[in-house]
Specification:
Length: 186
């Protein structure tokens, strides 16, 4: 693959290990070639490294398969997923799931990544809908400059939401940034 194909969540292989791009930035200096600055996470060990490539360089794409699976439950630092087609179950450690655990709830459909038939990670849908279980009351008259308040989702994840969002309501969240998008009427 060409270095220009790098994006967040792109999978590549270096030194015999699969990596996923967790942060990506293109920098064009005043003169010379453009630079691609990336933070990479080793999909097996979980270690992160920073790498910079020049425009025009070639990289090796990782031989990673993904299977659509359903999240079942978590217990003792491991997360269990089930293949909906053949009912096979796979366990992933909390190191491999990482911060995505903030958005896992029962029966959520995700993509589980396999490298050489070994589960190495999870890709969540980019947007999910979750219920607010706790939220601070909005202060009347506090409406200058688009104010927000803290709220807690059903998984325990805390995020900033607008003042008009109430406990018990469902909201759409961007799983890539962990930010509120909109209130969902059901």
């Amino acid at each position: 693959m060409d270095v220009s194909e790098l994006r967040k969540n792109a999978k590549l292989q270096m030194d015999g290990h699969p990596y996923v791009v967790t942060d990506f930035q293109f920098v064009k200096p005043g003169k010379g070639q453009g630079l691609y600055k990336c933070r990479l996470k080793n999909m097996i060990t979980g270690a992160t490294i920073d790498r910079t490539w020049r425009s025009g360089e070639r990289l090796e794409a990782a031989n990673v398969e993904s299977h659509r699976m359903q999240f079942l439950f978590s217990a003792g630092g491991s997360y269990t997923f089930m293949n909906s087609e053949n009912y096979e179950q796979v366990e992933l450690s909390s190191d491999l799931v990482g911060d995505d655990s903030n958005f896992l709830f029962e029966q959520l459909e995700v993509e589980v990544l396999f490298y050489n038939n070994r589960p190495v990670g999870v890709t969540l849908p980019s947007h999910i809908v979750m219920k607010i279980v706790e939220s601070e009351p909005g202060v009347k008259g506090d409406s200058a400059n688009n104010p927000t308040k803290m709220a807690t989702l059903e998984t325990g994840y805390r995020l900033q939401v607008p003042l008009f969002v109430k406990e018990g309501e469902r909201v759409k969240i961007d799983t890539r940034t962990g930010e509120y998008i909109e209130r969902v009427n059901t």
